[in-house]
## 1
Amino acid sequence: MLRMISKLHEGTLKIYIGPVSGSGKTYHMLRDGNDLREQGIDVVICAVSTMRRPETVEQLGELERVPSIHWIRHSDGAEMKDLNLEALLARNPEVVLVDGLAHRNRAGAAHATRLEDIRFLLRHNISVMTTVNVYELEGYTELARQLTGVRATYTVPADTLELADEVKLIDVTPETILSRLAAGHLQGHGNTDVFRQGNVGILRELALKLVAEGVNETLREHREGMGLPATTGIMERILVSAQYHWNGSLYIQRGQQIARRLNGSLHAVVFRQMKQPLSKEAAVFRRSMMKLVEKIGGQMQELPILHRRYIPAALAHYAMEQQITRIVMGHSRRTRWQELWQGSIINSLLRQLQGVDLLLVADRVATEGERVLPAKVSDAEPRTYRRLSEQEMKEQIGLIRRGAFKIYIGAAPGVGKTYMMLREGNDLLRKGIDVQIGLLETHGRADTVKQIGALTIIPRVQRLYQGSQLEEMDTEAILRNHPEVVLVDELAHTNVPGGAWHKRYEDVLQLLDAGISVITTVNVQHLESLNDAVEHITGVRVRETVPDRIIQSADEVQLIDVAPEALRQRMREGKIYASAKVEQALANFFRMGNLIALRELALRELADVVDERLEAQQSPRTLRGPWRQEEIVFVCVSNDRHAERLIRRGFRMAYRLKAAWYVHHVHIGTTISGELQEYLSSLEQLTVRLGGYFHIHYSSRLREVPDILAAKAVEVKATQLVVGQARRVWWLNGHRGSGSVVNRLVRLSRHRDVLIVADDDYK
């Protein structure tokens, strides 16, 4: 309570973090400062560096400047700016904007660092907005140096972001940075090694992951404060259950691979009878496993157990306490009759787990040896003197002619995607590029309307539907005008029936194929593979979706990040929806917990996209962990409502592994009813839309199902099997015990990994 009271007498701290200098942190800080000024808040600037970038200089507007203290750094002769604390205290503004959180002050200054200056101002009830690069945060400085060779001149403590009341990520694509560099807008930013495309990508991913971790912690605190379970369904927490045995380290290594590729944390647990001393062999394995866990940055714990039959209950309880999302363990080595007589840890564990996946790791050592290789495919075939066929020639020409594709993505409506799209359109227009607006949805937002500027809007086409005149993007008119760049809002929109295409993204693909570059917007909840995660977070099933391949095909994907409270404030001010809808929106989709979780989802999803692009460039420095080559994912689905979720899960696994993937369904009987056929067709459409292959097989008896699936998995050389938990998948129910279909399927698949997806999994 005393802390809360004292906080009332302190200023508010907002930190803008970006991957590199020149990412736009100062621009956004000044823009937000002008917004505050228009609201009647007293805002000044001090020690702000625009680097003479036109867009940033423009944002200075009428903001009052408190002169900084200028001095020359002896080491390199650079001109430096310190905060003039005396002048700021005498002026006593409500908010001060200042660049360079990691700045070091001149000799003899009242404080050694700008961070100390800022804390001084906060104690005097002056709020501060400031900027920092991700590689200037201790804890990330060394990692950035190892991955990119970039060395930070000055740093701030790793826990600095925890001091902030708000952290805002300013995302930037390597292409944008290179464009700014070519235009001469990044002069004076120091180390040019930072601006190499590969380095920008790595530092960008670091920034995304750093902010995502902070958002996850914020969500945990929010949910605990609301008396809700802390787990989010977004942050992966991997638990490896092992024994002091030769394969213990193998399971831990596999768990680490999964944790790193899923951007999660790693935990390891070993159950042992504490009263019995370890054998010499077990003691050796114990030391090696503990060293391994420590080396890879995981956590390991020994738990006491009286008898192995208590392990499932203890493991399920531990998983719930630690908010585990996936347990990794080895396949059972027992026969069917041993399981019937002595019981099965896996079967018992599955009955007790709630919301936790179970991955059974194949024992490949005996047959092929452990392979730990990068996920990326082998290098492209060397160029030969073979003449291209006519079809191959057309495909290559099509790729050359195709327009560039950029997507602005956000966590929710109102974050500023359309604003930034229009701003970029005007920037391109000033450079002499023919930019036109193909489709714009301003939703009556004054700030967005102002950004239209000199851009030409192509009129929409009128379509009659069910007695009403509705408007749609006029794709034919855009093709006739053939601008160099067209701006298209709301990529996930479903078109009014009557046009050439069902979805707006199909119109966009046509424009790209015609050689027209497209800049567009989308919210993270519209990605097809995240449909289940979004429903879990918000309670709303999003009907308008975009296949993930559309995002993957974009040349640039840029995140527009806004803190949830700032977004809710925009809502209250009527800047997102009409006043009549505000209270309903704040109480439903725009609830604080929803917005925090969606923000984390957007940050992690884009971090995945960035890392995939780094791997596609065959960079050895990506943050992802290694995986084996030539993975094949095999998804088993029934005809229940959970089938779509399993298909999306299979896609996300295959996408991370760069693997081919197949979906298989076994129908009991020889004929399929019309209703079931329609549902299976929708499953096939979903699979194909996500890039997989769908197959239906027939069986006269339920007992044949596992044999059919196992045989088909062998045919496609599957390395990963994905199934749902037996109690929710009707064809896996069977009889309780080792005779059930799911257990037989697992026994037949001991030479491959088997992922048993939790009933309420929404990853």
## 2
Amino acid sequence: MRVSVLGELRLTDDAGRTLDLGEGRRRRRNLRALICVLALEDRPVPSSRLKALLWDDPDRDHTSVLTNLVAQARRVLPPGRLVTETGTAGARLYRLARRAVDADDFVRDAERGDAARDRGRLATAAVHYRRAMAPWQGVSPDRTLHDLPDTEGARARVDPLRALRVRVAESLVAVQLDLGRQSPELVEEIGGHLAFDPANENLHRDRLVALYRLGRRTDALRAYRDAAAAIEAELGVPPGPALRRVHEQIAAGTLPPHAGEPDEPRARPVLRAGGLSYRGVTDYTLGGKDNTEAERAFVDKIIADTGTDATLITKDNRDCVLRMVRTLAGRGVRQFLDLGSGLPEQISPSVHQTARTAADEPPRVVYIDNDPVVAITSRAMYSGAGVAFHELDLMDVEAVLDAASRCLDFAEPIGLIAANSLQYVGDVDDDLGTGQVTELVTAYVDALVPGSYLAVTHITGDGIDPRLRRYIDSTEPGAALPQHLRTTGQIERLLVGLPLLPPGLTDVGAWRPERPFVRRDLRIIGGIGAKV
């Protein structure tokens, strides 16, 4: 059961259905207050404390009223959710069992945002702050925590939540400015936050800065006038020195421009081996035309020297990825982040086309790749509402999250795809950089909400034709196209402990196959982990 208390009380069962509080024309204020205070108390609450939370008149005995409210609550809540326990000296204790509360999510995401910001991970902090603010969407200033009782005991819980909302709003705006995300949408967003706290000088200052950076100096000066009036009206004092200083700099045209990273950071150089590119070799094995004579000769030589069918594994992998996308779309995922997306012609249909046919609403998809050739083609082909491409290195988690969060809503489930891309990442050490890559994947997964998924496919050295190793094994000094042939155990670690959907981690041709499985001389295995 989910309990939403940040606005008006709303209860939903485990299937997502809204529970009827049985109010009819009469709003059951005391019943709502009881459920709200129990939701915010993550522990058994004695009846004496419940009375103090619900009523401010300690001289009056509310025992019978409380007993009646508990009985009403049992009738509207799912069975077994309002639990009565026996405490010391026979005291009666009450608690809500197996509940998720939006206020708890809000506090947890705010703390994660603070931690990321303290580490200098601004894009990750922005994701967490944005998610922290999500439960407040649609809540008007006069309806915040509306069904909590106005008592001294309840205010001890309500006031910190309201104060935290203000601080998180300030932090979210500040981080976006630090990232150089000034935009008309940010100016509008700041205005929405000011509706909750009209005299907030930090927000007023940041609105001036955003307007100035957008080239709207006159609007910024007008915004200062409005800010001064709002502060005077509510507090009876003029603006403070920090806000006045920004106004003076804007008036003089001396406010420094944003000096951070550009909107689209330059990707690291694409991995190459001699005259070969991984993209071109893959393209040739799939029958494409975006490859060089050297790349075609390399593939032909492997086939001639080993008689292998390893080149067929690329099509097996492509088909598996599309089956994974259909599976996630069937589970309600409407957003995808594809790390190392490759040439659009190599994945046909694409992730967003596949998700669109498997879902009842248009998906939102962000593609990431650091290959300039992929970038040119993808920008031409991946256009339209809800689809974006960014030329970035997947190892730069901050830049990827920053770019992806402009299209994807990280407060909703996301399907994170790393299809045959992690084998090129990590140092060549005794563990093939697996620990390093596990930390990388964890940073991405930490930014996802429960209900999200991680889909991974990865080449493995387990059970491959030994003759292939000298061509592709990163531990072989003369390998022409080196990549990490990790073991099944190492690849499983890259799924960072997430429970796997059936059939688990297996050959891509055997992952929910649509045709008979054929084992290849070169193996790629894959699986999907669920963030629960």
## 3
Amino acid sequence: MNRKTLVLPAVIGLLAPVLAACGGSDSGSDNGGAIVVGTTDRFTASKDAPAPLDPAYAYDVGTWNILRQTVQTLMIQPRGEGEPVPEAAECCGFTDTGNERYACTLRDGLKFANGDPVTAADVKYSIDRARSLKADSGVFALLSTIDTVETQGDREVIFHLKTADATFPYKLSTPVAGIVDPDEYPKNKLRDGFDLQGSGPYTFKADVEDGELNKAEFTRNPDYKGSLKVNNGKIDMVSFKDADAMGEALNKGDIDLMTRAMSPDQIRKLSGDADTGVDLVEMPGLEIRYLGFNTDAPTVKSKAVRQAMAQIVNRSELVSKVYGSQAEPLYSLVPASVTGHSNSFFNKYGDPNVTKARSLLNQANITTPVKLTLHYTTDHYGPATKKEFEVLRDQLNSSGLFEVGIKGTPWDTFRPAEKKGEYDVYGMGWFPDFPDADNFLAPFLDKDNTLGSPYDNNQIRNTLIPESRREADRLSAASSLTDIQDIVASDVPVLPLWQGKQYVAARDDITGTAYALNSSSTLQLWELGRGVSG
């Protein structure tokens, strides 16, 4: 067989958000038995995070990829990128010229998987619930521009916004805006555990042991009405302890497809081996990695320390040693392929330079070497994360200006500790909620940001973010977006490192792999089917 490599268009954000959109409905046929998908994402219900699959709480790529199959949203990001299109809605659009009033009409005959009808009141309940619960994951901030939600009859929903927000249709496509049944999801508390019901293309069954989800069973929902064509009858998603175990299962035929997180070595091997019966599909991605700072912590409270780190880190060397051609250096929070991107960090710091870093520390009267611990998660962003932090440690220590150690922690411990401000410096990744520059800036810099960061810049929050959201033509928002990125490069509340491509590896009788992931790393299981081995 011939190795297949597919590259889809990667320029994001050139089109204005939809002003008015109406959609049809589609369905597919069952093309065989369950397709088994492997992942290294781990799903745990713990004391710190007892409700991992509640749409009002979930805020990471793994849990969202479960919710997107099961909990319907009014809008959805379409196959092949572009503007959001109606999903649970029949039509949606701004009804004013100022992008402050947004109305949707639900499809007729929508049902939850338990048979209850889906009404406009359920949409209002779901949105208001997420906003009022204000879960500590910070996901509710995606709905922060909503002032009130109004219903008219059983099918009309009207969102009155506090300020203009041209990105609002995208936000209605995210799981926090998912429609839940009030009989199943209490108003004043999160729904603990792994119970999950919605009106999406699949119903859901969880195989749980000791508080951890081992396998998720997705069965096509016969009552589903929406815009998606479902090309299979059943998907089983199996969680593996690491990439090696997942890869072995694919080679043995125990699974049909694997996604995140494959190791760089696995990807290189699959790229060069054309006779394995496995196809590797490469797609542009918008995943980024960065260092976050607790800007109130004594070790990094001085801007000069953070600037010195930005002056020393060698992104090209980091990418070359760890990820090779699978990633590219990143000089802003906004990826290079997204409209509004600016190379702000390169513009300010240029190439790595220890002399300039020393000068920054000397001018601020910082005693060297500065002692720091870089924290990273051992099991969330792939097996190369440890090596990545070893390279970062060595770069900083070789300057003589820093004395850095590294410490790895499992995600279910790492994330709560990070949100509580227990780490001075920590490594994080970001898979965008939607493909717009706003979503690479506001979640880190606005009030109620996802990191729980104490960093607060009034110009960004009160002027530049609102300015950028007023522009329906995202090219017209570039000036405000560039100003935000320049401030970030100067203050360094976060330090961007690299942006990555994304890959799917599947047995060669699996169809639809070219659309199994979109640029936001959304897993689109409905695209998969079973064909003929080639």
